[in-house]
Amino acid sequence: MKRTYLEHMLRQYELVERVKEYDPDADEAMLNRAYVYTVQKHGTQTRASGDPYFSHPVEVAGLMTDLKLDQETIATALLHDTVEDTLATIDDIEQHFGKDVARLVDGVTKLSKIEQMPENERAAENLRKFLLAMSEDIRVLLVKLGDRLHNMRTLHFIKKPEKRQRIARETMDIYAPLAERIGLYEYMREMQMLAFEQIEPEAFATITQRLDQIRSEDGGQVDAIALDMKHALLEAGITTEVSGREKHPYSIWRKMAERHVSFEQVTDIMAFRIICEDVADCYRALGVLHTTWQFLPGKFKDYISTPKNNGYRSLHTSLIYGKSMRVEVQIRTREMHRVNEFGFAAHWAYKQDGRPDGQVGWLRDLIEIVDASHDPEELLEHTRMAIYQDRIFAFTPKGALFQLPKGATPVDFAFAVHTDLGAQTVGAKINGRHMPLRTQLNNGDVVEIIKSDNADPQLSWLGFVVTGKARASIRRAVRLKERAEVAEIGQKLFDEIALRVPAKIGKKALREAIKRLEMEDEEDLYYAIGSAKIEDRAVMEALVPGCTAELENEPDWAKSGKALSIRGLTPGMGFQLAHCCHPVPGDRIVGVRRPNEGVEVHTIDCAHLANGIDSDWLDLSWGKRSRGAVGRMRVTLYDRPGTLAEMAGIFAQNHVNVTSLDQTQLDHPFTTYEIDLEVQDVPHLSRILSALRASDSIAQAERV
């Protein structure tokens, strides 16, 4: 078996000849050195298939020559596993092959040194390093995609099914979408096909079997349809190449899953590609097809006038052939076809003037997501959003075009234009009309964002935004604001703690305390106090070492007696208003502080306070001119027409907004509701209750 494989493996002179075909000036000596180096370093190592290990980097290099990439990329492909799997070092690579190749090899190698991490962290860290390496040089991605594609081709040799599943899932979730995003559709399709076979073996076998059956029964129908199209176009004076094929199994399976239909109900299994001489012929061919066969409204897409982000250009349409057969058709020029199959790599075929660009717009968005993401799960979620979905097109009022996922909203659009614009969004006009921020955009919408310098991203936006960039930016802004407000509470608590030590605390003592507690700065200390990550005594001891020795019997929550004001802080950020008692301004309140949970505000008579007996209690006050809060009441109405309208009228007369209304009991002749209202303070809530109790339509009204 090994002997047979070696007979077919790309030989040294064949690899060099491939490169010289498209780059006659390539450094032949360097390519030869790289080939020999990888064979020598990998030595007798073998793969799961039993083949010599060096066959893998040689095959990856062969894939890179198919993309006509420069000599540094070919050398990187040959050397990409030497640092990880042999005694070679990056310094060795630099010494033998130069800084450029060493940097690229290092970029690819870094992705592999994380095997000991838990599953989700490993995937996220892999992605994080991957994106950062890509941002410096996109060739790192091209080599890695070639590496993954060849590994997928030999995946069936791995004996452990769980390992095959893990590699296939990672390929489907990360590498295939990345190949799609840079336009490497050939790589994407093959990766999806090979991964699908491992992840859903039964579905793969069933669909493949059905496709074979169709192929054997159709009597050359695909060729017949292609010939019909070619003749129709030739009669119109358009010379074309027409080819047809069945869609690959994963594409059919995904369509079945999305539409919740069986194989028999998937009508557009056949796809045809028409290659024209120039752009004008593409549009003429489209006209001929639409006048010869009925086309399906809503299925036409013009990616020639508005290309995809990855440079993909083509006309797409769906036709009804014969009486009921649906077929998909793609129309493009030969140059478009070359770029469409090889994506950005087609633009980076060897250039005389130096190395290819490493930055593209969507990649910059991914880097922003890496910076904004808080943990591995969040990073994976946001990045998958950024690299997956189908796209729509929307415009700024000045005509700038932005591509967004289906379901995107004006907030997603604003963040796509610029992170700062997204953060300052307060409203939007869609096609000249004011619309809610959660409105889903349609193809061709013109979106004008209304902004305010004083605005902040809202936590509620996470309920409707769909882009990874928007979600990552909103979460980051919310986290920063929450941290700032918790630190503000912590600073007030620190001032109280400082009053309890036997010394006047100045800047010097504070700096020394921060050092003793091994913290970065004052904000770090205040945040730790506000979020109960550090006990008051530890802070006192850091300020004045030895001062807590005499406080053995003093409870840790002993305070100066002055209530802390929460005025200016935002519910849900610096503190949480308890859902058990719904405190509103004017209530006597206390705060319960638990580690890593922030401060939860309760009314002083809340029954649930007994559950927090071991927690740190804070004496709180609302402060002057506090903003309102949500109060809850239980109202029992007489069950007859008009009573609900009368209650709503009372709310309107008292200028109150209803945020929630739940029917909790229906006991004829009474109906009971629990209602949440946005009120200014306790007197405001009391006036509403009094007005309700005075109504003949209402049997009972009480605060909950």
Automatic annotation (TrEMBL):
**Which reaction is the catalytic activity of this chain?**
GTP + ATP = guanosine 3'-diphosphate 5'-triphosphate + AMP
A Pfam family name for this chain?
TGS
SMART domains for this protein:
HDc, RelA_SpoT
User: EC number(s) on record?
Assistant: 2.7.6.5
Q: Name one GO molecular function term.
A: GTP diphosphokinase activity
Which SUPFAM superfamilies does UniProt cross-reference here?
ACT-like, HD-domain/PDEase-like, Nucleotidyltransferase, TGS-like
Name all TGS domain ranges: 390-451
Boundaries of every HD domain copy: 53-152
* Keywords per UniProt: Transferase
Show where the ACT domain sits: 632-704
Q: Family membership, please give it.
A: Belongs to the relA/spoT family.
**PANTHER family associated with the record:** BIFUNCTIONAL (P)PPGPP SYNTHASE_HYDROLASE SPOT, GUANOSINE-3',5'-BIS DIPHOSPHATE 3'-PYROPHOSPHOHYDROLASE
Q: What does the UniProt function comment say about this protein?
A: In eubacteria ppGpp (guanosine 3'-diphosphate 5'-diphosphate) is a mediator of the stringent response that coordinates a variety of cellular activities in response to changes in nutritional abundance.
Q: What is this protein called?
A: GTP pyrophosphokinase rsh
Species of the source: Qipengyuania citrea
Traced from the root, the source organism's taxonomic lineage reads:
Bacteria, Pseudomonadati, Pseudomonadota, Alphaproteobacteria, Sphingomonadales
